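Entry 14. Ran structure prediction on the chain below.
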Amino acid sequence: MNENKFVGAWSLFSSVQSRNGLLSKTFGDPPSGQIQYTNEGRMSAFLMDPRWEKVGVNASKQADLFFSYGGRWELKGDEIHHFIEFCSAPSKIGATLVRSFRFINEDEIELSTAPETSPSGNVYETKLIWKRFS
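Output, structure tokens:
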């Protein structure tokens, strides 16, 4: 895979989460966000439900409406790894977010999480579709 295919800025087009097989849209309908990849191996991502701007002083109670992070990135086979250095969720700082990817076409990419089981036993997966900014 050529890393140059990733370089640039992408707009969030679709964000769908599966919880125990039940699908729900996340970060709004339509969602809002962007992800950027540089040639130097740096990246940043912002995912925001459009309702976020109206939250005001109660933002900490609505953290599921906004998520951002940045750091380094690299390809490993059919996965892209995001090495988190900065994050709106402090518990994620230092983590590596691994995403499977597939190019839908030259200007659309799907990033998917592996299934994760929460402490309560729920199984989550997320699929994000990003469109290249033109």
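The longest strand covers residues 8-19. Will compare against last week's run tomorrow.
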